[in-house]
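Pasting as-is:
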Amino acid sequence: MRIIKSYLQLARLDKPAGILLLLWPTLWALWLATHGVPNINLLVIFILGTIITRSAGCVINDIFDRRFDQKVTRTKQRPLATSALSLKQALFFLALLALLGLFLLCQLNMLSIKLGLLAACIACIYPLMKRITYFPQVILGIAFSMGIPMAFAACLNALPARCWILFAIAILWPIAYDTAYALVDAKDDQNIGVKSTALFFKHHAILFIAILQTIIIFGFIALGFLEHLSIIFYGAVALSALLFFYQQKLLKTDRAFAAFLNNQWLGCIIWLGIALGVS
């Protein structure tokens, strides 16, 4: 049982917030692409694919960061950092997840498969970016938003303009919430040489998050106008703006992790707004 628990921890299946943050933009796209009536088979494939993708991404991240994780307060109890699992065991688990993900991907059309393989490549390079640039959150934003073009491709076998508008909005969202997440580890990251937007903007990081959140809200308003979404969607956007305001209050009282977690509710609210607002 202990080794099973270690595998669950390695894949972060004991912490579902990350799965939801990856899943919500994909659901936004599925509902928007199909005008609120997604194919049930595609829905199951994308939900399972999201769980597997996020799990594999966590394994890749921990393989690259196993030495760093030992020196960071929040991550020093992770299975690879404590040697609860060996590198060989982690690589075997990653291969298994990759095979499962590839099986699901092969159920989609060719355009979706190509986009899925691109998404996998982006997920693989993300852990290295924090060693190279102060903006690894941009790569994370792209990785966490790739479900959007994949969903449109699977539903329409095309990538219309509305796909890219939603994609652009969705990229900004992980940049904002992962900057908040990076604030939690800022001191440890600075000591071990890991880069992030939180370290780049330093005392202005909260302002940077606020600017992104403002752009996101106006982006959703523009999307609603272009897609002729109902007043329900705008209500969801207004509620999301209130959540962003609440997150700013949390950030200013040194509760960055709580602000990060709050985003899983925001993603749900926007999904409900799209689901109930499409015609």
